[in-house]
Amino acid sequence: MPSLAYDAAHKYVKISKQASYVQANLFLSNLSKELQIADLNFSKDVRELKLFAKQKANQCLRNTAHLKTEQAFDYCLSKFEKYGFSIPCDMTHVEALTLFRTEKFWFNKFKTLATQKMETIRRQLDLVNQSKSAYCSDERLRQHQWEKAQAQEYMQNKWFCSADGEYVSMLDVYNSNVSNPKVRRSELMVRIKGTEEYSQLQNHESWFYTLTTPSKYHSHYKSGKPNPKFEHYSVKDANDYLNCQWQKARAQFDRENIQVYGLRVVEPHHDGTPHWHLMLFMPPHHSERVTQILSHYALEHDGNEQGALKSRFKAEKICSEKGSAQAYIAKYVCKNIDGEYLDEDKYGNDAKTAASKITAWASLYNIRQFQFFGLPSVSLWRQLRKIYGDAEDPELNKLRIAADSSDWLSYLLLMGGANVRKVERPFALEYENQIKALYAHLNFAELSKHAFSRIPKSILSMSARHLIENKQWVLLESPAEQVDSPPFPWEGRTVDEGSGGSRRHLGLV
User: Fold this and answer.
1) Which tens digits make up the pLDDT trace of 440-475?
2) Of the candidates 473, 471, 468, 472, which has an alpha carbon nearest to the alpha carbon of residue 456?
3) Given 12, 233, 332, 365, which residue is catalytic?
4) Percent of the chain with pLDDT over 70
5) Helix or strand or coil: residue 351?
6) Which residues pair with 112 in a beta bridge?
7) What CA–CA distance (Å, rounded) separates 482 from 490?
8) Residue 328 falls in the annotated catalytic set
9) Could you give the CA distance from residue 485 to residue 506 in angstroms, rounded to a whole number?
10) 160 neighbors 475 (Cβ within 8 angstroms)
11) For residue 199, which of 379, 333, 375 has the smallest C-alpha distance?
12) If you average pLDDT over every residue of the chain, what do you get?
């Protein structure tokens, strides 16, 4: 907090010199209001937030113990909503009361809210921009690195043990799936390569589009000078705006029976404001209309402002003479994951440092950086890579071989191609609902979908069902804890990071 106070004082002096003390005092007054909501001060540290969360949970438990369910729910909800929180409208009152009486639930809500609010305030204090700290503040980066270090320490001391005595460290599980940045990057590139190969088989064109928000969403210029048009929109507001415009464009595609497929990438400008890149594949006769539709919705709001035509929307056809779509998108994938194979970002910052800040930014605002659309399920792809041996169904076995050999093109073809409805694809994952431990004491009749986790149960094909083995993995403090017989390590083959994820082992289901 002392550093924030210093930065606030510095901003106060700056405003008083550039405008007046009246404006400076108004700024401090507004800043003070933003630091507080009800009885919660956002500058609390983690320990104080935990204590605050414990108090709220205890209040809900103590003050509603004698009340009927409906009355208890109304009391707790009123306490909850005063912080701007909400719960799903289809969650039952019994479930909600269980959450309201749980310290961890309150703490997670307060921590997320406080962390996002403090970063928003740092943006207002000119701490997030190219001249100071691009993408996110230095404090947010330190916090994210501390969280990652805590997670690594936690995983080093945890083990998964199966019912038949196999064990594997939690850290090995992390390193073998898409939580690991190297594996995540590799899987993305495998999927992009296969999708491009599919588009070439279909004689489709590939286009690269960039969509940027109106200037009122941007807090600063690259020089570090505040943008006078900024209307104090949050990062989430900006991303929601872009998502809304994209949904409008997709609705128009549907109305005109235009089918596109590809990848969306979300990344921040230097001041933390998100913008979108779209790599779209489509039949050649649709490309002109797709570009018109995207341009229309990109410039729908404030399209006449200065510089809008140049900076708000960009379209570029990807020609084989200039390189493949895979090569074109590779730098965006690397830049937004770990900075590998790059020297600098577009602002001249070290690529690896920039990637650390971008991932800290995405983690803070819960932004999904990469999303494919019009393509088959990647969850099924990952489950197939965990199957031991051949499947009984010949067609399913072909699909398994394609996934296990990292052949996304074959997988895409066997799944029916692009832009096929989920119910019409020849293979699908079947899930079963597993009750969460928090609600295990409640009557099933009183629960909604929010009380359950969806666990893959089987792979369905047109003629068969392949059961996914459930080894009943249990999380332990050590490989010998609570095991009747001495455990033995898993001797599966080493994970090939270049193949894009775990293969036939560490498949905890």
Assistant:
1) 999 888 899 999 999 999 999 888 889 888 878 888
2) 468
3) 332
4) 93
5) helix
6) none
7) 18
8) yes
9) 21
10) yes
11) 375
12) 91
Is 264 in contact with 239 (CB distance < 8 Å)? Answer: no
Tokens representing residue 189 in the block: 């590139």
Q: Tell me the sheet residues that pair with 41.
A: 36
SS3 17: helix
Model confidence at 25, in pLDDT bands (50, 70, 90)? Answer: very high
Cα(318)–Cα(310) distance, integer angstroms:
19
Chain-centre distance for alpha carbon 429? 22
Mention every residue, 6+ apart, whose C-beta is less than 8 A from residue 5. none
Please, which residues bridge with residue 263 across strands?
Answer: 279, 372
Supply 272's token pair.
């933390």
Verify whether residue 83 is a known catalytic residue: no
At position 38, the amino acid (one-letter code) is: A
pLDDT (tens digit, 9 = 90+) per residue, 233-284?
A: 999 999 999 999 999 999 999 999 999 999 999 999 999 999 999 999 999 9
| Residue 504 to residues 61, 383, 389, 496, Cα–Cα distance (Å) | 46, 9, 9, 11
Q: What pTM, to 2 d.p., does this model score?
A: 0.91
Q: For tokens 């191609």, name the residue.
A: 417
CA angle in degrees (0–180, nearest 5) for 285-289-292? 150
State pLDDT tens for residues 167-198: 888 999 898 889 899 999 999 999 999 999 99
- Which one of the listed residues 198, 328, 365, 411 is annotated catalytic? 328
* Residue found by looking up tokens 């599919």 in the block: 198
**CA torsion, points 390, 392, 395, 401, in degrees to nearest 10?**
-10
Q: Is the pLDDT of residue 496 over 60?
A: no
Burial class (CB in 10 A: 0-12, 13-18, 19+), 352: middle
How high is the pLDDT of residue 62?
A: 96
